[in-house]
Amino acid sequence: MKTIKCIGVLTSGGDASGMNAAIRAVTRSAICNGFKVKGIYRGYEGLINGEVKELTTQDVSSVIQRGGTMLKTARSAEFQTVEGRKKAYDTMQREGIDALVIIGGNGSITGARIFAEEYDVPCIGLPGTIDNDLYGTDFTIGYDTALNTIVECVDKIRDTATSHDRIFFVEVMGRDAGFLAQNSAIASGAEAAIIPEDRTDVDQLEKFIGRGFRKTKNSSIVIVSESPKDGGAMHYAERVKKEYPQYDVRVTILGHLQRGGSPSAYDRILASRLGAGAIDAILEGQRNVMIGIHNDEVVYVPFSEAIKKDKPLDKSLIKVLDELSI
Amino acid sequence: MKTIKCIGVLTSGGDASGMNAAIRAVTRSAICNGFKVKGIYRGYEGLINGEVKELTTQDVSSVIQRGGTMLKTARSAEFQTVEGRKKAYDTMQREGIDALVIIGGNGSITGARIFAEEYDVPCIGLPGTIDNDLYGTDFTIGYDTALNTIVECVDKIRDTATSHDRIFFVEVMGRDAGFLAQNSAIASGAEAAIIPEDRTDVDQLEKFIGRGFRKTKNSSIVIVSESPKDGGAMHYAERVKKEYPQYDVRVTILGHLQRGGSPSAYDRILASRLGAGAIDAILEGQRNVMIGIHNDEVVYVPFSEAIKKDKPLDKSLIKVLDELSI
Amino acid sequence: MKTIKCIGVLTSGGDASGMNAAIRAVTRSAICNGFKVKGIYRGYEGLINGEVKELTTQDVSSVIQRGGTMLKTARSAEFQTVEGRKKAYDTMQREGIDALVIIGGNGSITGARIFAEEYDVPCIGLPGTIDNDLYGTDFTIGYDTALNTIVECVDKIRDTATSHDRIFFVEVMGRDAGFLAQNSAIASGAEAAIIPEDRTDVDQLEKFIGRGFRKTKNSSIVIVSESPKDGGAMHYAERVKKEYPQYDVRVTILGHLQRGGSPSAYDRILASRLGAGAIDAILEGQRNVMIGIHNDEVVYVPFSEAIKKDKPLDKSLIKVLDELSI
Amino acid sequence: MKTIKCIGVLTSGGDASGMNAAIRAVTRSAICNGFKVKGIYRGYEGLINGEVKELTTQDVSSVIQRGGTMLKTARSAEFQTVEGRKKAYDTMQREGIDALVIIGGNGSITGARIFAEEYDVPCIGLPGTIDNDLYGTDFTIGYDTALNTIVECVDKIRDTATSHDRIFFVEVMGRDAGFLAQNSAIASGAEAAIIPEDRTDVDQLEKFIGRGFRKTKNSSIVIVSESPKDGGAMHYAERVKKEYPQYDVRVTILGHLQRGGSPSAYDRILASRLGAGAIDAILEGQRNVMIGIHNDEVVYVPFSEAIKKDKPLDKSLIKVLDELSI
C-alpha cells in the first residue's frame, strides 16, 4: 500500500451542524500527525472539478462553533457515473491526495464505498446527518443540534398553543427515520409523535383523539416526521379539522432552520472525537470504514455495514412518550 | 365619575411575548397603589362568560420571563355584538370591576373603544402585538422578541443556504405591516425584503434578480411578509424557479414560532413601563387611551388615534437594506 | 413487603436543570400505573418537617422546559442525624407514603441508602447533578445542560478574547470531577483544561505556555475546574501574569448560572426515561437502586455501587484536546 | 477641503457586539458610494503601526451576526502622545486614507477629537460600547445585546435562587453608568439595583432589607454595577451576610461574557443604520461628529458634545423597578 502523505477532506449531502468541527478535527489531527491536508469544496462535485485548497491549522480556527460547512456541500449526480468517478480520481492524482475523509450521510458513504472499490483509494467516512439514521453509530454529527433546535421551536409554539387552546401539528425532518420526531416529542412534552417507522395513520389519529385530550388538556402538540408520500403534518391536520371542526388546529413546518445553527456541545465533542478518530484509523491502516461512536467509544464500522442495515428506533421510548403525555 | 377600586386585566387577539410581563406590571403597580386586581381569562370571551379570578402579587411571580399569556387569549365574535358587550358589562358589575386594562392589537383596542363608549367604563389599552402596527407608539409589546426570533432563525437558514449555494425565501408574519420583514431583513443581512407596503411584485423580483446576485454572491435570502392574497414566499419562489431554473430555490415559512418564546430584555422593560403607565393613567383620571412609548417616554394615545391611522414604515431603511446587501 | 400505593418524590442537594422533567416523569408514570404521588418540598428537610403536597398530572404540566426544581431543594444537616431520619420516617407514616424517589447527587443518594437500611423503606434514586460524577450511569441529569451553558458562555468570551488578543482563564463547576471542564474545553475549542483528576499545576502551566501559544495564536482560553483548595482560575491567572507580564490575562468565574436554564433536549429525554424507569423499578419490586443510563439503556445500580466508586474520566479525550488545540 | 477617496475604519476601546455589523455597514455603504475602504487593525495602535488592509464587500460577508470585532481592538497609550498621533497621520498619508471612521466609546471619541483638531483629518465617530454612556445618542452599539445577555444569565440564576431560597448579588458591567444594571434589573424581575449614579450604599441596603423581602419572597436577586472603588457585589453580599447570617447569600460576577455573543436584532439594525449614516455624513461634508440615534432617527452629534456631558438615567425607571418588585 502506498504511503499516505496527504489527506483530502470533503463534506457531502445535506449539511449538518458540527461538520465544521469535524473538518477542524480532521485537519488539526492530521497535521499534528505529520500529514498534509487538502480541503475539497462542494463534495464530490468539487473532487470532480478540482476545487481543492490546502488547509492549515489556522484555516480551521474559530469554525468549531459555526453551523453549515466551510467546505460547502452538494449532491453530485456525476459522481454516480463511471466517468464522474474517473475525473474525481484524476483530481486526486493531480493534487497528490492519497486518502479521503468523507463527512456525510447514507448517500455519501455509499458513494465512498463504490469509489474505494473501483480505485483502491483509502476512504474514511464520518457520519454527518441530522437524521441519525446510520447503522453502527449511536449518534451522527448534527443530530443533537437539530434535536435541540426543534425542541426550542416547539417550546415557543407551546406558548402560543397554550395561550389560544390550540392543537398544533409540527413537522420535522427525517422522512425515513423517526429519531428526530420521536425524541423531540418526548423532550418537548408533546402529546404524540407520528413517525415513518410506525405510520399507521388512522390508528395514530384515533389513539390521539380517542385519548380524549380535551378532557385533561386544552392544547396539544403533535410532532410529525416529514413525508412526501402522505403529506406530513398538513395531511394530519386536515383530517383532524374535518373530523373535529370544533378544534382550532394549526400547522408549522420547521423546514431548513433545523439544519443550521451553532452546534451543541455534544455535537462538537462528537465531531472532534470522530475527526481525530479518522486520522487514528488512517494511521492504523484502516480503510473503507466509517468512524462511529458506540457506548461512548470510537468504533470502526465497515462501509457495507453502515449503509446496509436500518438503524432501529428504541421502542421503549414510545411507552415513555405515551405515559408522560397523559 | 365612580371611584375606581378594582381593575380588571385581560389579553386579547393574537398572543405576543411580553404579555405576561405586562400583566405582572399592571397587577403589581395596581396593588402597590391600593387597587384590587382581577384577571379575566380568554380575552373578551372570558369577560362575557365570567371567567374571572383575583390576582395577587404572588400570582404574577416568575412570569416576566415567559412567553404567551397566563390569562390566555382569544378572538371574540360575540363581543362584536350588542348582546355580547351587554354580558361583558354584566360580568364587570357582578365582579365589581370598575376599570379595564386591555392588552392586545388593533382589533382589541377597537373593541375597547366601542365598549367604553357604550357603557362609560374606563378602559386603558396596552399595545400587545408582534406586528408593531399600532399608531402612536414607537414599539408594541412582542415586536422586539419576534424580530429576534426571526433573525435567529434566518441565521440558521443562512448556514444551510451558504453551504448549498441556495436562494431561500423566508416568510414572516405581518400581513398588513412590513416592520418585521423589513427590519429582520436588515438585521439578518438578507438580500431583499418584500413587504405589504411596497408589494410591487414584478419590480421587486426584477430588482432582486436584475441586481445579478450571482455575480457577487452564491447564496441569497429574501424575507417575505405573509400574504394570503398573493401567496407569500411560495408564490415568489415559484416565479423565480420558473424564470431561473438553474437556481436552487427553497422556502421556509416560520409560522407560529414567531409568537412565543421568552421575551427579549426590551420587551420586558417596555411591558413593565407600559403596565405601570396604565395604572398611572388611571390614577390621573385618564380613560380610553392606549399607553404607548414615544421617544423613549410613556405617552397616552386616544383610542381613536391609535386605530385610525396607519403607522408608516421608515423609508430610509429601504435604502439601508439596498446599500448593505450589495 | 407492604404493597406500595403512594410514592413520595423529592429533589435534594444542588439543583440541576432537568429535575423538573424528572419530577414530571415520576409523577405521570406513577399515576399512569395506579399510584398516588406526593411531592416533598426542600428535600429531606421537607420530609422531616412534613412539607408534603399531593401531585396530579396537571401539577406537572409545562414544567419539562423549566430549570431549577418546582419542589425546591436543600441540603439537610438534620437528616444526617438519627433523630432527623426518625422524623422523616414519621412524616412518611403520617402521609401514607410507601416508597421514596430521590433526585439528587452523591450526598443525596448516600442519605437515601442509610435511611433505607434503617427503616426498610423502598428508595429509588435518580442521578441529578451537573457534575456527572455518579458511578454506574453514563450521564447525570443536568450535566448536558450545564455543558451547553458553559460552551455558550465561552463562545461569547472567545469573541472578546480574540478582539483583544487576551488569555482568559474561565472557571467552571466540578470541584471533584473534571467532566465539565474537560468536555467544555473540547467543545469550545479551548487551548487547555485544568481538572481535579490531573491537577499537576506547574506541569500544566509549563505545557500550556511551553507550547508557545503566541507562535500560532493571539488569544487563548483555559478552562479550570473550581478548586477551593488551590484557588482555581484566579490562582493560575496570577501565576501566568507574574511569569509573563507581557500577556493580557483575564479571569471569568461562571458561577451559579451553570445550574439553571431550560434543560437541553438530552437532559429532558434522560430525565423522562429515568423518571419512568423509577416507576418500572418499583413495579418490579426493586429497591435501593439508582436508575442510571448505560449504553443508552436504563439500568439499575445498587446504591452502594453508585456512591462507592469514582467515575473515571475518559483519558483519550485529553489526547483529543491536545491535538485539536494546536 | 481635499476630496475624499478612501475611508479608513477602525474599532477602538472595549469590544462591543455589533461592531462587525458597523464595519460591514461602513464598508458596503462606502463602496456603494464610490469610496475605497481600508480596515485598520487594533484601533489606534494599528493606525500608528501601519496595520492596514483594504476591505471589499466580500470581506464583510457573514460578519453581521458575529460578536467581537474582525478588525480587533486595543487601547492605545501611544496615541495619547503627540508622537503617536504623528505616526498615525503618517500612516494615513502613506496609505492614502482621507477620512476616518472610529467605532468605540468615550475614550475613542476623545482621541478622534484631538487627532482631528491637530491634523485637519475628517473623523466620524460611531458609538460602540455596551455601557450606553455616550451623550447625544439614545443607544450605543452593543448595549442591547449586553442587556439581553445579562437578562438570560439572571434568568438562569433565578432558577437556582428560587430552588434554594437564596439571595443573589449579581455584578454587571458599567462602572460609571447604571444603564445595564437598572434596566437588567427591571427586565429580569430583580428585587433591587445598586447603580453608580445613586450608590447610597447604606440606604439601598436598608431599603432592600427593610422592605422585609422574606415576608413575601423566599429568594431575591440584586443587580450591582461593578465598582472598583467600593468592591461591587462582593462588598454588598458581605454586608448582608454579616447583618443577616440567617440568609443564604451568593455572588455571581458575570464578567467578560457580557461583551461577546451574536448581536441582537436591534444592535444589528442600529449598527447598520449608523454605519450607513457615517458615509452619508461624509458625503454631506460633515466631520468630527458622532453618528447617533435619537427618537429613532439618525443624528449628528459634535464630538465635543458627545463626550462632554453625562448621559442621564431615566429616574422614572427607578419607580417602575420599585413598584414591580413588591
From TrEMBL, chains A, B, C, D:
The active site is at residue 131. ATP binds at residues 14, 75-76, 105-108. One of its GO terms (biological process) is fructose 6-phosphate metabolic process. One of its GO terms (molecular function) is identical protein binding. One of its GO terms (cellular component) is 6-phosphofructokinase complex. Allosterically activated by ADP and other diphosphonucleosides, and allosterically inhibited by phosphoenolpyruvate. Substrate binds at residues 129-131, 166, 173-175, 226, 250, 256-259. Its EC number is 2.7.1.11. PROSITE patterns: PHOSPHOFRUCTOKINASE. InterPro entries: ATP_PFK, ATP_PFK_prok-type, PFKA_ATP_prok, Phosphofructokinase_CS, Phosphofructokinase_dom, PKF_sf. Pfam families: PFK. It is found in: Cytoplasm. Signal peptide: none annotated. ADP binds at residues 24-28, 158, 189-191, 215, 217-219. The keyword ATP-binding applies. Its cofactor is Mg(2+). Pathway: Carbohydrate degradation; glycolysis; D-glyceraldehyde 3-phosphate and glycerone phosphate from D-glucose: step 3/4. Keywords: Allosteric enzyme, ATP-binding, Cytoplasm, Glycolysis, Kinase, Magnesium, Metal-binding, Nucleotide-binding, Transferase. Belongs to the phosphofructokinase type A (PFKA) family. ATP-dependent PFK group I subfamily. Prokaryotic clade 'B1' sub-subfamily. Homotetramer. This is ATP-dependent 6-phosphofructokinase. It comes from Phocaeicola dorei CL02T12C06. The lineage of its organism: Bacteria, Pseudomonadati, Bacteroidota, Bacteroidia, Bacteroidales. The gene is pfkA.
